[in-house]
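Sharing a chain and its predicted structure for anyone who wants a worked example. Both blocks are below, sequence first, tokens second.
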Amino acid sequence: MNTVTRRKFLITSGVVGGAALAAGSAWTLRDVFDTATWDDRPGDAKTLVLVTLYGGNDGLANVIPFAEKGYREARNELAYSAEEVIKLNDTVGLNPGLAGFKRMFDAKKLAVIRGVGYPKPDHSHFRSMDIWQTAQPDRPGNTGWLGRWLDTFGGDPRHAVSFEPVLPPLLAGATSAGAAVPVTGLALPNGVQTATLEKFGATSAGEPALQARAARAFADLISVDTLIHSVDSDTGDEPDEQAGGTGTGGRSDLKAQLDLVARCVEANVATRVFSVSLGGFDLHAEERDSQESLLKRLDEALTGFAERMAKTEAGRRVVVAVYSEFGRRVAANGSDGTDHGTASNMFLLGSPVRGGLYGEQPSLSDLDNGDLKFTTDFRSVYATLLRDVLDADPQQVLGYDRTFPGLL
């Protein structure tokens, strides 16, 4: 297949990511696997998997203060009874959709960090996510916190990989950026068969490097598409399904994304950071069932991933961190949903994690204009991840070095 024909097909076909791959501006799964031969990763180096929950995950529907005065009055139909929650102790419990999280908590491999937020919170999805991804609460900058880490680490994009069609800001540094590896399913134009695409994916001896890379991109698109559809058929989920939330970013195929992360970890690639996401949490109406469905999806994906990681030496050095841009208002609105709020929870899980409850549970009686007051600065969690997972200096990356002792 000659270069002109392949490039013309890429640009005109509408195959996701095709034009970018042909131009050499995106990366493929095979590019990531190529790093398994590198020798720049210490034998005891840990891996961070960052899970972004887009839309504003309702912390009071995750870690539920069922015994606190005022909870049922504020939540009305959204409230869970003491009999419904999965109890962590006599005052708080997990959402019924998080049964796997409870098993990890009991095994001391899940840390629940409560009341996480930042000063002068912002209710805008976009500004709040900018704050979380840049780790600059006073004034969001133009570099992500993990992008700045990558600047200090050497700069090769494959050290920080996002399975997204567009690189999230958190992986953009001042002098370098992570690798966006698009893994959405194929959308072939009318009249084009998979067999045709397979021919495009066959490389030719002596062809130019960029042409060969474009060919590898086609091959990767086919293999990843097969993987994603096999995972979706196992779960019964459609790839584009959202559980009732408004469109605020993120993806629905978290299990498929984590399966790709697992394959990379098991191949001992050089990547130290993976970014994945789940969307749909902006639940302004009919929240209870949709939230529980989303949390069940999160639980199944992360529980399965953690069990798989526990089986290998490389997997036992993986730490997963889960966050969202903000929590929700304490009181339910008039549509059996909740509106944009402030403090929420973070979850850390994996073999290196010392499980338990961390941080102070925000009070339901001492509110800031109807919002929870944060008790844990999110930068302290980031600082801990930088120091204890990525072996980096939090002060250099964040300008902040207060950490959680004993969390990892």
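Comments welcome. Residues 209-235 form the longest helix (27 residues).
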